[in-house]
TrEMBL record, chain A:
Keyword tags: DNA-binding
Statement: the UniProt record of this protein carries the keyword DNA-binding: yes
Domain of life: Eukaryota
Source organism: Ilex paraguariensis
GO CC field: chromosome
InterPro entries for the chain: NA-bd_OB-fold, SOSS-B
Single GO molecular function: DNA binding
This protein's name: SOSS complex subunit B homolog
Automatic annotation (TrEMBL), chain B:
Organism whose genome encodes this protein: Ilex paraguariensis
Domain Integrator complex subunit 3 N-terminal: 49-458
Lineage per the UniProt record: Eukaryota, Viridiplantae, Streptophyta, Embryophyta, Tracheophyta
InterPro entries referenced in this protein's UniProt entry, alphabetically: INTS3, INTS3_N
Record Pfam families: Ints3_N
Protein name: Integrator complex subunit 3 N-terminal domain-containing protein
Amino acid sequence: MISLKDIVPAAQNNINTQFILLDKGKISLDGQHKTCLALVADETAGVHFQLWGDECDAFEPGDIVRLVNGIFSYNRNNLVLRAGKRGKMEKVGEFTLVFVETPNMSEIRWVPDPNNPKIYVQEAVISPYSRIFPPMQ
Amino acid sequence: MDLHMASKLIYTATYEAENPIEVSLREAFHLLEPQLRPPFSLKVPTQPEYLNLNRAILFGILCELHFAKVHIKHLHGIVTDGYTFFTSLLTKVVNELYSKLVDSAKIQLIWITKELIHVAAVGFDALLVALLRQIVGGDFSEGNLWLCQELVSLFLFEWDCLLEEEPLVLASALYLFLRLLADHYRISGNSKIEALKLMEINLCVRVFREQFHLCLKIGRDLIRLLQDLVHIPEFRVIWKDLVLKPTEFRTNGFVDILQLYQKRTSSRYLLLRITPEMEKQLRFLLTHVKLGSQKRYQVWFMRKIFCVPERETLVIDIVRFLCCAHHPPNEIIQSDVIQRWAVIGWLLKSCKKNYVQANVKLALFYDWLFFDERVDNIMNIEPAILLMANSIPRYLDMTHTLLDFLFLLMDNYDVERKGLVIQCVSSAFGVLIRKGVIHSLDVLTHCDMLSPCLKESLGKLLPANPPPVSYCATLGFGISDGWGISNSIIGPTPFIWRGQRFTASCSGQAIALTNKITTTCSTENTGAPNSIAVTASAKLSQMTNIL
């Protein structure tokens, strides 16, 4: 299980992690499928999550979710965590998870590592918090 | 299709992970399925086998309606621990899975509970308490009312058994159904609730009249609950007896209602009105969430609790729980975790209805009114003072509202014992200062923005030399308390509460209420021209309009 602060964009279904859903955006249609952006977080960081299809209605803010074989990559120009074709999301509880909303892994500019172009590294922070789901005052 | 196939135990939504408890029960059942039909093995099981057999039988009882009787016979045959494990497992199922159980499993649950009572299973009282806690306050949905109905019937029907084996569970039932009645009486035109109300009254009256010593165990919150019900004839009589004829209850040692006021209510009763899930969330909030990071949790909590407006009354029970049943350790108090006073402030602000707000404030201050350092807990009174002090200056209206309410309470809660109440509240302030919960009342008395009237009243509350505690806590006899009001309580005591004047004879004395409440005269009970009564709703709205 990986902490959200340690996820790195990659074209692999290798993210196994647990987080709490903080907020859900509007459901829109991508072709025939429902899609919805959400803010999720764990004790170490937050990230934008792309819900897909039935997932959009199945999860609510406050849900604690376990993700296996998820993928953290650019999807239509958004850097998002998602289950993807090979991943699976499961609700395992509610409420009782501590979280932070900064850093937000989606609000970071990643560049290929000069020493190993196959791997991404952090170059700069675009925004400390999500610009789409700012923290509640 | 085999009609006798085991049903599932719980509803699981898509995307929901399997529940570990359900899995362990189901797996045990499928593993041992061949052994669950007669003829049963006579081989003595090892300890792990015994536990697994219990799990399998439990699953079978809840999910195989047609074989339930076979399963219970099996259980009776193999049990070697007085049903301890079985009952504790069932209690766990109730606490963690009740809301997810399929309907047929819920019906079976009630059935097996009765069976366990009949064999005096070890821990059946904890099972009953777990069931009582699953009744959601302010919820009038069919499922919830069904559970209410089943449990009140169970308590009435199994009365003798319960009395013989675990009488204290009747005290829990009394607390719970008194509380529910207050909510149920706010609904009209529902025939199901009418029948339910009658049974609830029946049960409560029976406990009062036949097992009053159990009522004594509840302590002061019993009165808080009863006072919400004095508009119901059966409870008005009980109230009158409590105040005027304590000997009617034929319980040795009980001679005065003061004895109830002076007994702090154990947290076990206050927990009754909080579901395990709510308890878990509140304790989590107050243990792990830093002040400043609580907003999202509050939104989620509110969404669950206040999904329906009637559920607002739950806040009364939550505040009482927070004051009395959740006492954070020093490390938490000194950390940056959100404190109880902040949670209570937010809850109070969220209440829309006047009567709920008033009752929430009463719940917040209830342990102040008869506070006695020797038997009361400073942690019960701490949230109120911190909420008042920490609301300055940003939320000054909160401080005003609370102080106003406190003084109103002191003057009106029990007019005949006003001197005692003042003394107890004064003592509460004193203890809070002495133990360092606040440095001094200067934060209040020297606050420019607080009304001079309030500050003056506050100043009077703190004598330089506190008067000696001059009442006998154990026997409840009142003696002149140094405030100039004679409090001899032997014999009928005239006083006013919630619009009814109770007295054997008219004192002929106009009782001056504070200059904030003007009285209206109506002669309800005594017919004496000088008696003063303030109608309950007028009083409550006066109290809340000021606030």
